[in-house]
Amino acid sequence: MDHFQYRDSILHCEDVPVVELAATYGTPLWVYSSATLVHHLSQIQRAFAAANPLICYSLKTNGNIHIGRLMAEHGSGFDVTSGGELYRALLSGGSGDKIVFAGVGKTDEEIKYALRSKIRFFNVESEAELLNLGEVAKSEGVVANAALRVNPDLPPKTHVKTDTSVKGVKFGLDIETVLEVAERVVGHPHLKVMGLHMHLGSPILSAEPYRQGIDKGIALIDKFRQQGHAITHLNMGGGFGVHYRRQEALPASAFAEVILPAVAKTKCQLVLEPGRFIVGNAGILLSRVLFTKETGGKRYVIQDAAMNDLIRPTLYDSFHRIWPVAPPAGLPAPPDDYETNIPNTFPQDVVGPVCESGDFLAKGRNLPMLRRGDLLATFSAGAYGMAMSSNYNGRPRAAEVLVSGNRHRLIRRRETYEDLVRPEQEVPPS
Asked: What is the mean pLDDT of the chain?
């Protein structure tokens, strides 16, 4: 976990004991390491340096503007998927020429906002969207830059709900018909097809899908150019996997070895949209045990983080390492393998207070005997954690804290009950 380490059997984020953060800000609590965020961004920057890439941090993974500002300060642009994310990108210090806009359902208002913000280009996902982009650009009196997102129809490579390049998903233009679509807009006065976009899904733990996809991409770029499109950008998206269970993910250099030769062949500007790779292992969810319970032969740890905080386990069957912040004497800090038999532990379900049977962070996890008040850390929670959280069951969303060395600061306050109802109270009475 990079800059999350146990020292004297107490979990630290950089140089700060996590127990200090819980005492200061309460739980549940999102804790992020600025050193880890910058380190992971720099890994991609170094691995792909030969291509001088435009790296666009994917705001959908974690859109906190303080994290966004950290990314911008260290040279990153932004990948956005909505008008709200575009607003966050600009508020984070992003400049339009370093922003790309993805998503299958952009509204006219979002398109106008992006055009007025002078973004680098739109990742276009359908013929209807492409034609509508041209109409909106015409109404604004401008030319819209577009990268056609192609679905390369590759074999399954990750969870079905996050695999975006298999046949039959909503994303991208079919590889069999994308050339026909491109042909229809050659010479369009308000559209400039200037790129190819190919995001394969996430998280991907092998470079092989990129090899397969990019071979198809090279051929398409040649054909687009033959049609008359001046293709200058190759956007390979993101999707690089991270360590969720142990050390299963590849370094950025492994993906660079596959992608960089294609960039040289096409003579394109490389664009990457990493998110999870940067922020996934840069954050933990900190929670406190409320009760323990034994029923039906099962042991439950009921703690104050729930599926409304971290929905990935119940939504994607995702595995997150979980371990006490201060494990009892005689226990590893932390274990090398969370899925094996660990002495002095036994299987327990880690669940939250939400009224759903699907409210869990882990099932059958080997953990020591825990008591009311003990702190738990759910690791690798920086990506798609807070970003996908909700107010279900009337639960205020948790606070977020950013740690840098021995300093820490609040980057999002904990929501209040008043926050939950404020938009309803602001509506004039009928």
From this structure: 93
Residues 240 and 252: beta-carbon distance below 8 Å: yes
Count of C-beta atoms within a 10 Å radius of residue 229: 23
Task: Give the C-alpha separation, 235 to 231, whole Å.
Answer: 11
Catalytic residues: 355
The dihedral over CA atoms of 394, 377, 1, 395, expressed in degrees to the nearest 10, equals: 0
Nearest to 68 by CA among 47, 41, 43: 41
pLDDT of residue 155: 54
Domain edges within the chain? 4-31+280-423, 34-276
pLDDT at 50 over 90: yes
Q: How far apart are CA 284 and CA 3, in angstroms?
A: 11
Task: Name the one residue in this structure whose structure tokens are 């850390």.
Answer: 377
* pLDDT for res 165: 53
Q: What is the pLDDT of residues 177-236, one digit of tens each?
A: 999 999 999 999 999 999 999 878 768 878 888 888 888 899 999 999 999 999 999 999
Name the fold adopted by 34-276.
TIM Barrel (3.20.20)
C-alpha neighbours within 13 Å on the C-beta side of residue 339 = 5
Q: What integer pLDDT is reported at residue 57 of this predicted model?
A: 98
Cα(356)–Cα(339) distance, integer angstroms: 25
Q: List strands edge to edge, sheet with 4-7.
A: 4-7, 10-13, 16-17
Reported as a single tens digit per residue, the pLDDT across 221-243 is: 999 999 999 999 999 998 888 88
At the fourth CATH level, which superfamily is domain 4-31+280-423? Lyase, Ornithine Decarboxylase; Chain A, domain 1 (2.40.37.10)
- Cα separation, 213 vs 198, whole angstroms: 8
Q: Which spans in 26-64 are helix H?
A: 34-47
